[in-house]
Amino acid sequence: MIGAIEAGGTKIVCAVADRKELPRVAERISIPTRTPEETLPKIVSFFKQYPVEAIGIGSFGPIDVNQDSSTYGFITNTPKLAWRNFDFLGAIRAAFDLPYFWTTDVNAAAFGEQQYGAARFAKNSIYITVGTGIGGGVILNGKVMEGRGHPEIGHIYINQLASDPFEGNCPYHSNCLEGLAAGPAIEVRAGQKAEQLNATDALWQIEAHYLAQACVNYTLSFAPEVIVFGGGVMKQTHLFPLIQEQFQMLLGGYMETTAVESFIVPCKLRDNAGIVGSLALAEQLI
């Protein structure tokens, strides 16, 4: 049996599965993300019930993924102050002497979609979540891409439209993708949440343009076989044709891809991508 932890800013999902039955989850619990002192005992108590052989962990970040670092396994400069500079992996290791795969929540989701979802059978894929923030995971040659740190492709700079006066909603960058196109940016612009906007609202054209720009940059940088979108904003399915159209215009035929309808696609695992991906990463350790 394998285990998984998907640590999010508001909740932490723990799950176990039989290796032969993936992506089916045997049991799971959801724990509110309070302080480590409140949350960790509940995580440990859950896994003590099962004969787990390995655990995959996808965590909110930023996190330290550099195995040569003295703070490998830590959640680092997170706005969640109780978790800042916390040795998450070390705390789990102290409870269970097992193999672990430690990565970001979006990397885990990317791997889940590559193994069992919309990017299945693709060796190279990108997963982007557009919600409260924008984050992404990159799969190259079937493996999660990491270096000294993990990709932060939600913060790439965007060429802002001359007709768009919005100053951006990111405290670090005035015109990064997250600041211009994440859910809070839509809400500030429109005065209402994305799901409340009419599908014909002109703001969706701006949103699609910025997400299409990002797709062009990812395509030119990583040469993926497919780009998968998830997150709350992307549940507005009318966005996909707009992004696909803008992507083709911006790419200008410079690089060949598969048909755009199968190149830029919605996630298949939906809200289960992260936990399924964490399980799949644990399975690879055995």
From TrEMBL:
Class of the enzyme per the UniProt entry, highest EC level: transferase
Keyword Magnesium on entry: yes
Domain of life: Bacteria
PROSITE patterns linked to this entry: ROK (PS01125)
UniProt catalytic activity: D-fructose + ATP = D-fructose 6-phosphate + ADP + H(+)
CDD domains: ASKHA_NBD_ROK_BsFRK-like
Presence of the UniProt keyword Metal-binding in the record: yes
Cofactor(s) the protein needs: Mg(2+)
Secretion signal span: none
Transmembrane segments: none
EC number from the UniProt entry: 2.7.1.4
Keywords of the record: Magnesium, Metal-binding, Zinc
InterPro entries per UniProt: ATPase_NBD, Carb_Metab_Reg_Kinase/Isom, ROK, ROK_cs
Protein family (similarity comment): Belongs to the ROK (NagC/XylR) family.
Protein name as it appears in the record: fructokinase
Organism encoding this protein: Listeria floridensis FSL S10-1187
